[in-house]
Design goal:
The chain is an alpha/beta fold and 319 residues long. It has 15 helices and nine strands. α10 links the parallel β8 and β9. α2 runs antiparallel to α12, α5 runs parallel beside α7 and α12 packs antiparallel against α15.
Length: 319
């Protein structure tokens, strides 16, 4: 079986998995604006997939459309058997790889023992990786943080992960405690590269944290050519064209917003229930940094349907 990680040319770019953001609708938007080399899904709870009650939601998160490919399924949880059960099914769903979420800082996820809480249970993390690898032919990777509470935790945590023969390792250059409140620890990049080279030179190394666009990724790559790829997360909120060097006009952003609404409507008709409320998270992607943007967002927040959103945008343009 081919390995997607070996097919990507350095430095490759990835859209970071973000809860409530990187669903199939927003991936279509980024595809239109300028796609990355690789997409990830939102993270999916392995225990939800393992239960009849939660499987519908899990499968919704794992929706893959042709334009998404290549795409990696990201999953989280703490039950190794549930990881194995979901891993068995992913290849048939059209995924190119499986990524284990050991870095999410959400307190509810951590309280359940998943995400960054895995850093505190290294033996469990190793068992989860083992179960995932034993139950799929897909390449298995991990996304994590430097540590849970202290930066120096990376000195034991990252070597442990690198010894698991992962296909790729993405390191968000902050701890769980730091969230995104401090600058990413770029000063540790040389040490992380050294660890990878010494322990697992075949494992692809991806960096995440404060990388806002294509140009910044290339600048980092020039400084650290041993890095294989870069992951952009919040940068898409500043510029949805961040995987290109294009600076969009206000009109292009408004047109992309309309495309987002069209994709939302199309997908909403295909599924049993698709919530409207999360759409509000995306207004700042398209409506920002121009005169009247703040007032326009206020009006959009009052809307309750996509048709109302379109009417507000049309009225703004016609005035």
């Amino acid at each position: 079986m081919s390995n997607i990680w070996n097919e990507l040319e350095k430095p490759f770019l990835i859209l970071a998995p973000m809860e409530g953001v990187t669903d199939c609708v927003f991936r279509a938007v980024i595809e239109k604006a300028g796609r990355p080399d690789l997409f990830y899904t939102e993270f999916t709870n392995v225990s939800s997939f393992a239960s009849e009650r939660g499987r519908h939601d899990a499968l919704e998160r794992l929706t893959v459309k042709p334009e998404d490919k290549p795409i990696i399924a990201q999953i989280w949880g703490k039950n190794p058997e549930h990881f194995g059960e979901l891993a068995k099914n992913l290849e048939s769903m059209g995924f190119a790889g499986l990524d284990l979420n050991f870095g999410c800082p959400d307190r509810h996820v951590n309280k359940a023992g998943g995400g960054a809480a895995m850093i505190r249970t290294p033996e469990l993390a190793v068992e989860v990786i083992k179960q995932a690898k034993e139950n799929t032919n897909l390449p298995v990777s991990v996304k994590t943080r430097l540590g849970f509470t202290y930066v120096d935790e990376y000195k034991e945590w990252l070597p442990l992960l690198l010894k698991q023969n992962l296909t790729a390792l993405t390191v968000h250059l902050r701890t769980r405690k730091e969230m995104s409140k401090v600058a990413a620890h770029y000063e540790l990049i040389p040490e992380i590269i050294k660890l990878r080279n010494e322990i697992a030179p075949e494992t692809k190394l991806i960096l995440n944290g404060d990388i806002k666009n294509h140009a910044e990724a290339l600048a980092l790559y020039e400084q650290y050519p041993e890095i294989d790829g870069f992951m952009i997360g919040r940068g898409v909120f500043q510029n949805p064209y961040c995987f290109t060097d294009h600076e969009p006009t206000k009109q292009e952003l408004l047109d992309l917003f309309r495309f987002h609404l069209d994709e939302y409507d199309r997908h909403e008709k295909e599924v049993e229930k698709y919530p409207y409320e999360p759409l509000k998270h995306f207004f700042k992607v398209y409506i920002n940094s121009f005169d009247g943007a703040s007032d326009l967002r206020v009006k959009l927040m009052e809307c309750k349907t996509t048709d109302e959103l379109r009417q507000v945008i049309d009225s703004y343009e016609n005035n």
